[in-house]
Amino acid sequence: MIRERIITIWEYMDLSAAKLEKLTAIDRNNWYHLRNGRRRANEDDIEAIIKIAPQFAFWLTTGQIAPEIGQVSPEFEEADAHLQGPHVG
């Protein structure tokens, strides 16, 4: 579950393994292996993702959101952005 959520964040933020390497100092091959299912997510991966996307920390670790304290999921953030978009009328 954590691995899938990390991948969801990765895709939502439109990050490449090379960009993740620059942002997190974790080798891009480790990110490739995580994405391709060759390894499980570990503590370093979780901490690194939380540092670059703190708004997803609660969702990443629990699968739940708490928008009232700024803890959302990529899906929630995307839906909220559409609701906040320009209104016609």
Automatic annotation (TrEMBL):
Q: Which keywords belong to this entry? A: DNA-binding
**InterPro entries on file:** Lambda_DNA-bd_dom_sf
Query: Which superkingdom heads the taxonomic lineage of this protein's source?
Result: Bacteria
In Swiss-Prot or TrEMBL terms, this protein is called: DNA-binding protein
Q: Which GO terms describe its molecular function?
A: DNA binding
Q: Which organism is this entry from?
A: Pseudomonas nitroreducens
